[in-house]
Specification:
With 208 residues, the protein is α/β, with parallel strands linked by helices. 53% of the residues lie in helices and 12% in strands. It has a five-stranded parallel beta sheet, with helices on both faces. It binds thymidine-5'-diphosphate (TYD).
């Protein structure tokens, strides 16, 4: 059993990495669950739609934070904890570090509120490893620009400075707790990224 959380700015390739890792784990007969935030549960999918929709009057930053934590509470109690109790691996596309990076780092939300919610809602439910797919903002914007503006969600449409603050916040978080974070260079080919992750999981004895 292991709990891995994947993080990064938009366009960093988390979803691809999760898919390729899950194929390898499944081949080894490892039972696993893939989830994502926001939107890992039925209720969460509605919260996700509410959060990502572009609108003239967007939610207040504190309301945005509360909604991400509402989604997370549902995901922790309904998906993550039950899977871990059954001895399964959990691969989560984003977890609480996203709220710290996007809402505190990006929007300037109070760390006191976010940390309080984290303690109450995530408590002991902590990943064995955080994987940061680190990508320069220029590259992220290049990847996002492949889509027309109308296809970008409320966060993807934010400016360069917003994404830069998030990247910086992720790097700060990961440097503060190097034991628990693996930083991968998201500009490398996906096969190289996967191979570095597998080596790290073996070295940490998460994968035997
Ligand atoms: P994600 O599903 O990773 O985006 P996509 O599927 O479009 O690649 O996340 C959706 C957006 O929500 C993303 O821009 C990051 C943002 N987000 C926050 O701002 N705070 C959070 O706590 C989480 C989990 C996501």
């Amino acid at each position: 059993m292991a709990f891995l959380a994947f993080e990064g700015i938009d366009g960093s390739g988390k979803t691809t990495l999760i898919q390729s890792l899950s194929k390898i784990l499944k081949k080894q007969g490892i039972p696993l669950v893939i989830t994502r935030e926001p939107g890992g549960t039925e209720v969460g999918q509605e919260i996700r739609a509410l959060l990502l929709k572009k609108r003239l009057n967007p939610p207040l930053p504190s309301v945005e934070t509360l909604l991400y934590y509402a989604d997370r509470k549902q995901n922790v109690d309904q998906v993550i904890q039950p899977a871990l109790k059954e001895g399964k691996w959990v691969l989560s596309d984003r977890y609480w570090a996203s709220t710290s990076a996007f809402q505190c780092g990006g929007r300037g939300e109070s760390e006191a509120l976010v940390n309080l919610l984290r303690e109450k809602i995530c408590g002991e439910c902590q990943p064995d490893l955080w994987i940061l797919l680190d990508l320069p903002v220029e590259q992220s914007l290049k990847r996002l620009n492949k889509f027309s503006r109308s296809h970008l969600d409320r966060f993807e449409s934010e400016d360069r400075e917003f994404h830069q603050k998030i990247r910086d916040y992720y790097l700060k978080l990961s440097h503060e707790n190097q034991e628990k974070w693996l930083i991968l260079d998201a500009t490398e080919p996906s096969s190289e990224i996967l191979s570095k992750l597998l080596t790290h999981l073996e070295r940490k004895k998460i994968l035997k």
